[in-house]
Design goal:
The chain has a two-stranded antiparallel sheet with strand order 1-2. Helix 3 crosses helix 4. A hairpin with a 5-residue loop joins strand 1 and strand 2. It has one domain (about 15-115): Orthogonal Bundle (Multidrug-efflux Transporter Regulator, Chain: A, Domain 2), CATH 1.10.1660.10. Helix content is about 65%, strand content about 5%. It is mainly alpha-helical. The radius of gyration is 16 Å and the shape is globular. The relative contact order is 0.12. It has helices at about 15-20, 25-35, 55-70, 75-115, and strands at about 40-45, 50.
Amino acid sequence: MALNPNKELKLYYSISEVAEMFGVTETLLRYWEKEFPTITPRKSGRNIRQYTKEDIEAVRLVYNLVKVRGMKLAAARETLKKNKEGTLQTTEVIDRLQAIRDELLSIRRELDGLV
């Protein structure tokens, strides 16, 4: 599921909230945290992860490369290292296109309901 860029984000999100945003497991997020140095959630005194907007953007980039594009982890790491800005722009375009597709499908369902 794409993160809505227009929605105001609260200051911190729990690992379960972030996992739900992307439809992945908490275990996968912890694994990506080890594999991708750009994912660095704060940890409270009881070692509870607290994700900021920046952390969620880092997860979104990894999600796009690994889950949407199907890259292996090493290739995704290399892509982020070599061209993070280009990867970010591509991810934003994909998210916008997905939102447009969802809106068009919604309009289509409404039109189908009128017939």
